[in-house]
Design goal:
The complex is a heterodimer. By secondary structure, chain A is of the alpha+beta class. Chain A is built from 5 helices and 6 strands; from the N terminus they run H-H-E-E-H-H-E-E-E-E-H. Chain A folds into 2 domains: 47 residues; 133 residues, no CATH class. Chain A is elongated, with a radius of gyration of 30 Å. Classes of the chains: A alpha+beta, B alpha+beta.
Chain lengths: 185, 166
């Protein structure tokens, strides 16, 4: 009887060891699988490359390509060959001089359309123009009207000279469209 | 007497080992659940290892394809921006780009499709070129670049270089 008891105890110990081994095997397998799936997900995120700097550079150097007139004290005729950087600096100069942004409404609509054409699909652009001294805390104007409030935003900035020689900070923000819609609700 | 003694000892030895054989047979059946658990554990580890290694190799392949697509797009942009003295290339030059020559840097096992599209001020296809050596695969990666160019009216337009490799 004592021999039988001893044999039974050993069997239970072996079974316990096997269960521990099985649990450890499952744990190790889970860690290995989660690591491989996590790294694959990281690459999938990197695959959707968004380069706001490239969009901003191409935008600022492009011609506005439409002719219209800006009604100021002295009307300004835009022929279409002017770059977006030049048009933005003109608007900033007028606002810095105490003028209104209202005469630039048509131009800002063209700017908004151009940015929508250039930014990657699934993103909504916002362009902020600010004076160097005040920075983004008090922007001169924002196109298309409200800066993106999404938490995840791809952004790039550039300096352009205004018509009266001051430096202007231009910031382009690209927010995922779905997140921008959620933030606006 | 010696034979008798040996016989008794043999019978004791045999009977003892018969009992031990019973024990062994019982132990074998008792250890079957242990064996099953150990085999399942080993099988789980092997399956996870195979699955992980295949995922990682697929990921490496995707990364390699992504780098190939980005490098190919960079070569096209670099070739387009080789303007003799001018700040931007002309649309005519972009239309005449020899994409097949630039694709020589890709391995022969890689298929590709290249499109040059004017995205501003109007949408217009400028150039399309694709390899026909390899059928299109689901394992493909894309890359794009934006460049400025001069159109027929001397305006600076924006052209997107789109590259897909598989």
């Amino acid at each position: 009887m004592s021999g039988d008891r001893a044999r039974s105890d050993l069997g239970q110990l072996a079974l316990l060891d096997a269960m521990v081994f099985f649990a450890a095997a499952i744990l190790l397998s889970s860690i290995a699988l989660s690591f491989s799936f996590d790294s694959a997900g990281t690459f999938a995120g990197g695959n959707s490359r968004v380069d706001a700097g490239e969009v901003l550079t191409a935008f600022l150097h492009a011609s506005i390509a439409e002719s219209f007139e800006i009604v100021l004290d002295e009307p300004v005729t835009v022929t279409g060959g002017e770059t977006f950087a030049l048009c933005l600096s003109l608007e900033a100069s007028i606002i810095l001089g105490g003028g209104s942004a209202e005469p630039f409404r048509q131009m800002n609509e063209i700017v908004g359309r151009a940015l929508s054409d250039l930014c990657p699909a699934g993103f909504s652009p916002s362009l902020v123009v600010a004076e160097k001294s005040t920075g983004l805390g008090d922007p001169l104007f924002v196109i298309p009207g409200a800066a993106n409030r999404s938490e995840q935003v791809y952004a790039a900035s550039a300096w352009i000279p205004s018509a009266n020689g001051e430096e202007l900070l231009v910031v382009l923000m690209l927010a995922p469209t779905l997140l921008a819609e959620v933030a606006s609700i | 007497m010696l034979h008798v003694g040996v016989g008794i000892e043999m019978s004791r030895w045999v009977s003892g080992h018969v009992r031990e054989d019973d024990t062994a047979v019982g132990g074998f059946f008792e250890d079957l659940p242990v064996l099953v658990l150990v085999l399942c554990g080993v099988a789980t580890i092997i399956a996870a290892s195979v699955l992980s290694s295949s995922r990682i190799s697929e990921e490496r392949q995707d990364e390699w394809l992504q780098e190939a697509a980005a490098g190919f797009a960079d070569r096209i942009v670099e070739s387009a921006l080789q303007t003799e003295g001018a700040e931007y290339p002309t649309i005519a030059k972009l239309r005449a780009l020899n994409v097949s020559r630039l694709a020589a840097g890709l391995p022969e096992s890689v298929g590709y499709a290249v499109s040059l599209v004017q995205v501003y001020p109007k949408f217009e296809w400028l150039l399309q070129n694709a390899s026909h050596q390899k059928p299109v695969s689901e394992d493909a990666c894309a890359s794009s670049r934006l460049v400025n160019a001069i159109d027929a009216w001397s305006r600076v337009v924006v052209v997107e270089v789109r590259v897909v490799v598989w």
